[in-house]
What we know:
Elements (H helix, E strand, L loop, with lengths): L11 H9 L14 E6 L5 E4 L2 E4 L8 E6 L3 E6 L6 E6 L11 H10 L15 H7 L4 H14 L5 H10 L6 H13 L24 H8 L5
Antiparallel strand pairs: 1-4, 2-3, 4-5, 5-6
Helix pairs in contact: 2-4, 3-5, 5-6
Amino acid sequence: MNRLHYAKKERIADLWEAERKKLLTLPTVPFEVFRLEPTRLNKYRELRFETTTYPLPQCRPLETVWLKVKWDEIEVLSGDGKYRHLATLPRPYTEKAIPIEWSAVFDGYRRKPRAVMYSDLAKFMPASVRTFVQVEEVDLRKSRIALIRRLLDTHQVSEIGAALDTLTGHFSPDAALEHVLYTMKHPEFRPEPFTEPHTPMEIHGHTPDLRQYDAILGVSKA
């Protein structure tokens, strides 16, 4: 820094001091590239963006929201003028999983049981769960939606789907579902047989004939 500049014949340190005063301060907040646009949810609390349907069960049906569209994600903001953050959703081409709050989704189905028959969200359920709730009989549909919603408080929708898979063809899956989920989370403990060197090999696995003991004791089955 103390040597002379090859062209200006001045000390490099002096030249740097003169240039340093002209430098601009870098911004402390990153520059965001996005576009802001309003949209309206459908009556099933879903957002349709480009070719993808996103669930927004935390919103109201037909609510207007603002979309902060970035290259890799969409921020959903409230349309009430306060711009509250409601959700962050991945753009379709990023191939990231769409987060679905199934308990809130089934809260909506419980209010409008018919919605489960037409909502695009149904295709994201495990096939067995979709088949279980999409039944024509209205009262049965209502009771099954209520059952799944209650089970979602303690189980993942994938676990409920796995349990229903085991009940295929069962005469009463509604009654057995909770029991199957319990047994899946609390499997029966079956310890491995241990090596016991004292018993002679000749009687390993031998089952005694209890009739011989009965004869010695004078026991009669009559």
